[in-house]
Amino acid sequence: MEGIFSNAERAEVLTAALPYIRRYNGKIVVVKYGGNAMVNEQLKEQVMEDIVLLWLIGVKVVLVHGGGPEISETMKRLGKQAQFVNGLRVTDKETVDIVQMVLAGKINKTLVNLLQMKGGHAVGLSGIDGGIIEARMKNEDLGFVGEITKIRTQPINDLLEKNYIPVISTVASDRQGNTYNINGDTAAAYIAGALNAERLIMMTDIAGILEDKDDPATLIPQITVEQAKTLFDSGVISGGMIPKVECCIEALERGVNNVIIMDGRISHSILMELLTDEGAGTMVTKG
Questions:
Q1: How high does pLDDT run on average in the chain?
Q2: Helix H segments across the chain?
Q3: Is 244 a catalytic residue?
Q4: Residue 185 appears among annotated catalytic residues
């Protein structure tokens, strides 16, 4: 890698990034790191490097993470079959304990550890800590799947003020002490909205919104909320992309400036999005 770029080229790259560094310095950027985007260990390290770099140049990064594949894998090892209804995990009492163990325990602390190994200062939280995410039961048929009723930003802002990277797992509680599994995209949208984030980055395992779902070359680089609704009607946005785009719209309506859906499998896609002209993925804006 050393021989690929001359020192002059490196300096050119840094200079080109300067306007973007100015733009995001001191601003809050929420990154939703999805379960399907975190299956490759080398990529996971690169994402953490990107987040630490943004933190070092003064961006206030909040990392919200899921972990669906790992939850399913742990359930399987424990002899429990995962069930889904409309993309939401059916969560009985035993399952919600597994969700809490995997998300708030293993995955959360692994990401915190990686960030610190890369030179960042990170603190892991779950939505239960400090009452960050308050929820109620969404649907009795789904069990302990939560619908968000309140976001408390104070614990997150306290950490940002002390120059830490908050790493938040998406489990929540209600006032009766019940624990709920929260959809990661929904939690990220609500948290980003409550923080009035400059940008929400949704990392997933596809390139963004595609005109033809089987052809990455048909990536749509930017759409408005109105255009998104047209794409719902025409079937361009379909399947698992529907709830993702709905979460993007939710975030915009709650006060986020713009939202990006991007491919978390591409090296340094976060840096390409925030620090270059080209960007990455599909940007969804109010219009």
A1: 89
A2: 7-24, 41-56, 68-77, 93-100, 108-117, 154-161, 184-194, 225-234, 241-253, 269-275
A3: yes
A4: yes
